[in-house]
Design a protein that fits this description.
Chain lengths: 172, 456
């Protein structure tokens, strides 16, 4: 195998390995995260649950409450901002809702936090469940791009070498 | 003659490695203390019983510390499996150990062999009235080495040493005879023969040393990372490093995920690095490549160093490169100290695997044998030792990781399995065990390869 072709083949294999990793990681990352408690833990006002690590996968938000609530999902910067000056800049917002299921897509990996507003005049119990599914989109895109680059480069280099061989034959 | 000697040496080394592995296993098993407590129904000697019950325990040949707690004077018997059968069938007591007329007391018993054992307790009061019978409780603790395993491993080591040493002695005797014969022949030569026998001075136009090393490095990379070796290394590195389970979902503790799956990384690292190094050193010797290269003006030291530097650099670059992707995948900051600490620990463990494989390769000079021995030895240690034991790669990594985590973030990683933070001594030991053994083996292999090793 020629040196250039070998390098491109290595690139192709890196992409392939990343693709395998992407498939394996769909099972190794946590599939369900829950916040709050539907039966007990009734409270009121603004509540921010512990932040969590989220990967760019598809996810379903399942909200169950015994009163009308507002639910916000904040990214890391927005959570910091909220903690600093109570400025709300939510990535996903669900307002005036009692029960509901929403399908969403996360586009970037990092820390996120669930912020809820429970009516101040009543004791409200809430449970927010995030269920993740699918591949990590950034990894999938990167692996497919690397595979494509590898295949194209191998194809081009083999075409060039074939052309050179033909030219040499013609000259001979 | 030489090939037979080599074969015997190889067999001897296999025995030695198996023996040492058993010895390490025995030492590790001795650190585990088993304990149990039981309340013993105390019988009266004249009490007749239709069903003679005895609780059976499986003991290994270790030291048994037996603490008897009783509110009366009792006789306690220890029965082996034959004694248990006798007691159950005929009611005859044939103990291997007995404590007569004893009150609350502690005894140390040497368990003679591996097997089932049972305890009997009798009150010295001959009354059949159960209300007057005493209650006895036994607290047992097994400690010390398992003697059968210890003797077995020592015997294997002795056999291995003997098999390794005998051919060397035979070869030495043969060489002495040859030298004395040569001396006799030299005596037949005329007196001025010494001037004839003087070596002619050969002025070889040797290449400059750095350029020679560079050429050897390039040759080594081309030869021993040829298709598809490098590709396999990359695939294994990507698939083992990037697929650990995400055990910590808190972004603040995301670095803890670097710890999960590290055992898989080490297991594959052992296999990959061991196979590559043995292929390069022992494979090159057994195929005759080393002899061919050394027939050119090439220094042995350069050949040795080029192999080590080339393969270690490639392995480090591949694993470090793939490991660096974890910064992005785990959403860590690029300056996360735990990432760099992990990389440092992985580098030292890689160095250790490389040094062990090199040493085994230059001693055995047999590719398959050295791969097998290094893999068995390292896989064995890795599997036998606990997750936090400093004997295993995972244990050293976990200890170091937990120590740095405690120092930098003030918390222990939840998945590390430590109840208290490792001490500075443990952390330093986890680092210097790998560095020290690697340095020793590297120097040993270097000296052996450049000064002592005979290449056939």
């Amino acid at each position: 195998m020629k040196r250039n072709t070998r390098i491109f083949f290595v690139v192709f294999l890196i992409g392939l390995s990343l693709l395998i990793v992407t498939v394996i990681r769909t099972n190794s990352a946590p599939a369900v995260l829950s916040f709050g408690n539907e039966e007990e833990g009734a409270t009121s006002g603004w509540v921010m649950y512990p932040d969590f690590l989220m990967f760019p996968r598809d996810f379903r938000v399942d909200i169950r409450a015994n009163n009308t609530v507002n639910v916000y999902i904040l990214d890391e910067d927005a959570a910091k901002q909220w903690n600093a000056d109570r400025t709300l800049d939510a990535t996903w917002s669900y307002e005036e809702i009692e029960q509901g299921v929403f399908n969403e897509q996360a586009n970037s990996r990092g820390g996120y936090a669930v912020l809820v507003y429970l009516p101040a005049d009543s004791a409200t119990a809430i449970k927010v469940t995030l269920t993740f599914s699918g591949f990590e989109k950034d990894l999938l895109a990167a692996s497919l791009a690397i595979i494509a680059v590898g295949i194209i480069a191998i194809g081009v280099s083999s075409l060039i070498s074939r052309k050179k061989r033909l030219e040499t034959k013609l000259v001979a | 003659m030489r090939s037979k000697t080599q074969l015997l040496t190889s067999i001897g080394i296999i025995f030695l490695v198996i023996g040492v592995s058993f010895l390490v296993g025995t030492a590790y098993r001795s650190s585990v203390t088993y304990g149990a407590s039981l309340s013993l129904g105390t019988l009266s000697y004249n009490q007749t019983s239709e069903y003679r019950n005895v609780m059976v325990y499986a003991f290994s040949p270790r030291d048994l510390s037996l603490e008897i707690t009783t509110n009366a004077t009792v006789d306690v018997y220890l029965l082996d499996s034959e004694g248990i059968n006798l007691w159950r069938s005929e009611g005859t007591i044939k103990p291997i150990w007995a404590a007569k007329d004893t009150e609350s007391q502690t005894f140390l018993i040497h368990i003679p062999s591996r097997g089932n054992y049972g305890f009997l307790s009798f009150t010295t009061n001959n009354s059949t009235d159960t209300s007057t019978l005493s209650s006895t409780s036994l607290s047992m603790k097994l400690s010390g080495y398992e003697r059968d395993l210890l003797w077995f491993s020592l015997a294997i080591i002795a056999v291995g040493s003997a098999i390794t040493a005998i051919p060397k002695i035979m070869l030495l005797k043969g060489n002495r005879k040859l030298i004395s014969a040569q001396r006799k022949n030299l005596g037949l030569l005329p007196k001025d023969a010494s001037s004839i026998l003087q070596q002619p001075k050969v002025n070889l136009n040797q290449p400059k040393l750095p350029s020679q090393l560079r050429k050897l490095l390039a040759w080594e990379l081309e030869e021993y990372l040829a298709f598809p070796l490098l590709e396999v290394v990359i695939i294994i590195a990507v698939c083992t490093v990037l697929t650990p389970a995400i055990v910590e979902t808190s972004p603040a503790l995301s670095y803890s995920n670097l710890l999960s799956g590290i055992q898989t990384v080490f297991l594959f690292l052992i296999f990959v690095a061991g196979a590559l190094f043995c292929h390069s050193y022992a494979g090159s010797i057994s195929k005759g490549e080393t002899k061919l290269i050394l027939s050119y003006p090439v220094q042995r030291s350069h050949l040795f160093l080029s192999k080590f530097i080339a393969l270690f650099t490639v392995l480090f670059a591949v694993y470090a490169g793939v490991f660096a992707l974890q910064i992005y995948l785990l959403a860590l900051t690029p300056f996360e100290p735990l990432f760099y600490a992990s990389l440092l620990f992985i580098t030292f463990q890689l160095l250790l695997v490389c040094a062990i494989s090199t040493a085994l390769s230059v001693i055995t000079k047999n590719e398959m044998l050295s791969i097998l021995v290094s893999a068995l030895l390292l896989f064995g240690i890795e599997n036998i030792a606990a997750r936090i034991s400093l004997v295993s790669f995972t244990g050293r990594f976990t200890t170091g990781f937990a120590f740095v985590s405690q120092q930098v973030h003030g918390v222990l990683p939840p998945s590390a399995g430590f109840s208290a933070a490792p001490t500075t001594g443990d952390a330093l030991l986890s680092l210097f065990v790998a560095v020290g053994i690697s340095a020793f083996l590297f120097v040993f292999s270097y000296v052996y390869y450049t000064r002592k090793m005979e290449i056939d």
